[in-house]
Input
Amino acid sequence: METCVVGCKLPHGLDIDLDVKKDERGIMTDSKRLTLKGANSSRIMGGYGITRGVPKESFATWLAEHARAPFVINGAVFMVNDDASARDRAKEGGDATGLEQIDPLKKSAKLGTDKLEMGDDEKKALAEARASNPLRPRQIDELETDEA
Output
């Protein structure tokens, strides 16, 4: 059986079913579960988790069936023949998956600000909400002053 190398940039990898068999009603009766290593695996190349020894024909079928999935379209999951090709493909990178960590210091399109700052009204509302919370003794309130 010929094998391939699969790269996956999704943070926790991906569980996929290969060689799916269905009954006459279209209900899956049998398959082989494979877990692709993701970007959070212990050994990565260029931000991709690398899974070796994947059955090439089965994964090619799966890839064709899921060709319209966003993670396949943007290159977050790819298939190559060997480690050298995987290294080259991982160096190319790819588009962001949309699951990357947010940098709070960069400008947020939703908030429209460079920093996450609260105005006086928001600070007052937060202080009132914290004061009415029954778990208040367990909270640390940065807005309190030394006068309290």
